[in-house]
Amino acid sequence: MADDVIEKFREDKAATPKASKAKLKELARQKPPVERKAELPLDEGYAKTFIKVTVAVAVFLFAITLSGVLGINAMFENSKRQVVSNFTVQVLPKPNYEESRQDLLNVVGFLEKYPDVVQVSVLSDSELHALLEPWLGGNVDIELLPIPKLLDVKIDNAKGFDYKTLAARLSEVSAEASINDHNLWLSRLLKFINSLKMLAVTVLVLVAAAAITAIVFAAKTGLNVHKEIISILHVIGATDKYIALNYVKEISKMSLLAGIAGAAAAAPAIVIIGDMAKGIEAGIFNSVSFGAGEWLYILLLPLISTAMTALTAYLTVVKTLREMM
Amino acid sequence: MAVREFEPIVEMKNVGLSYGDNPAVLSNIDFAFRRGSLHFLTGKSGAGKTSLLSMLYLAQKPTEGTLKVFGSNVSLTDRDTLAFLRRRIGVVFQDFRLLDHLSVFDNVALPLRLKGMKEKEIRHRVIELLAWVELKDNMYVKSSEISGGEKQRAAIARAVINRPELLLADEPTGNVDSEIAQKLMKLFLELNRLGTTVVIATHSNELMERYPYPRLKLENGALTYVK
């Protein structure tokens, strides 16, 4: 009886009209009217919203913190460039005016001939007066005070300049002359900036850890919600890698959009903070600069966060699948 | 490993299955399915048919004995290899187990996509099969939105699209009218004629009388062979 059935089946197949076969071929060539959906969908509920918000907030905080670090770095480099290309020489006054004047001329003469020195300028009395005014007031006659003379010295080769040798040779010219090369001030500034950087790195690590935890949680929740789908995919022959990549593809698309939103929200905040820093008009803050290179780092953040999300989700899914089945 | 012609496609030696500390659902099962054979699997509800099938489609490993599928000892096979073995098996579930969020087309295309087949070839194959099971007009409808009979046909189409070497069907004709049931049986018989080993779990005496193939009867977790 079964043979009869098979015979009938063959007849059915053979009897399929040519026109109908052509119609099927034409149908196969047509573009499907509906978009292909992911086999393992993301949970439509709170877990999806949770990931979106977490990634957007993480990228926003990353962008703000990173811009702070980059801005401070630029400020330090600018200040260093300005400061190390000049130094100050202080010449203490002698009891006799003429001796003091001769001493000053000797020091200026020596410095002008010293290798790599390009300019030596003596601060005028009015400039000294302006420097001291905040402390002594405007009514003090500076001529009556034993104020040291200050020399601003500009050098050409700041990097290899040997201050120790200069100090030793200068002391031979004048016992009253001494050098202030800003290195102490710079080292303190560097220490402060390094502390800020450490703080920023800690914030970045904490934000990344929070984002990773959220992604792990959401991925595990999503897999539990879709246990049945996963079990069907396994039975049909899907490998763990196939299922994980399917999930990662979906979560990455969402993470990229959330990351772009976070970076876009951070951009105006960065511009405003930068303008505020410049508005302080306090010397060092004026040198805060945020160029194309720094903006490139910020623009890369959504891609970096997407890569981080993808890797975290992939590892979580593979591990969870092994625990599930 | 290539399966040689004389090797059984499925081989069970003293196979037992139990869940946790509960009494064994299946015990001391010794049987082998020859390549190209067709068997009915019968037994009362709760006899263990579904559990036996789940071991055959490699969703579960036996807790006792040795189960070999396509020559591979299931208990000693790694996860990826098991996945590749599963691709050679077609399964028709009693409750269909379609992916409800996907269209009928995408459900049926799934085994071919897992194999990495080109989309153009997939479209040709799937549309041809869907036309044959009379689901062509509903192929872009979500599988959750079609009737029980249509789901059954979609599930069968998904199981056979890949021309499996082993086809396991759990009550495949339970939710369809007699005309469709005849048509589905025709498909199973044709696949069997082409070399697919077929195991059909059923309660239907009518079906077993109409198609006189060997029967395996599960009773109290033990398997008996009825010619």
Key structural traits:
heterodimer; A: 325 residues; alpha+beta; 2 domains; 4-stranded antiparallel β-sheet; 10 helices; rod-shaped; B: 227 residues; alpha/beta; 6-stranded mixed β-sheet; 10 strands; globular
Description:
The complex is a heterodimer of chains A (325) and B (227). Chain A folds into 2 domains: 46-81 and 186-324, no CATH class; 86-157, no CATH class. In chain A, 71% of the residues lie in helices and 7% in strands. Chain A contains 10 helices and 4 strands, in the order αααβαβαβαβαααα. Chain A has a 4-stranded antiparallel β-sheet. Chain A is rod-shaped. Chain A starts with a helix and ends with a helix. The model of chain A has no long low-confidence stretch (mean pLDDT 82). Chain B is α/β, with parallel strands linked by helices and 227 residues long. Chain B has a domain at 101-162. The longest helix of chain B has 16 residues, at 178-193. Chain B is globular, with a radius of gyration of 17 Å. Classes of the chains: A alpha+beta (325), B alpha/beta (227). Chain A binds chain B through residues 1-2, 5-6, 8-10, 12, 20, 24-25, 27-29, 32-34, 36-37, 39, 41, 228-229, 231-242, 322, 325, and chain B through 57-59, 79-80, 83-87, 89, 91, 97-99, 101-103, 105-106, 110-111, 114-115, 120, 123-124, 127-128, 131, 136, 140, 158, 182, 185-187, 189-190, 193, 210-213.
Annotate the secondary structure layout.
The complex is a heterodimer of chains A (325) and B (227).
Chain A: H1 2-14, H2 18-29, H3 46-84, E1 86-91, H4 97-113, E2 117-122, H5 125-136, E3 149-155, H6 163-173, E4 177-180, H7 183-225, H8 227-236, H9 240-279, H10 292-324
Antiparallel strand pairs in A: 1-3, 1-4, 2-3
Helix pairs in contact in A: 3-7, 3-9, 3-10, 7-10, 9-10
Chain B: E1 10-17, E2 26-33, E3 38-42, H1 49-56, E4 64-69, E5 72-73, H2 79-86, E6 89-92, H3 104-115, H4 119-132, H5 148-160, E7 166-170, H6 178-193, E8 197-201, H7 205-210, E9 215-219, E10 222-226
Parallel strand pairs in B: 3-8, 3-9, 6-7, 7-8
Antiparallel strand pairs in B: 1-2, 1-4, 4-5, 9-10
Helix pairs in contact in B: 3-4, 3-5
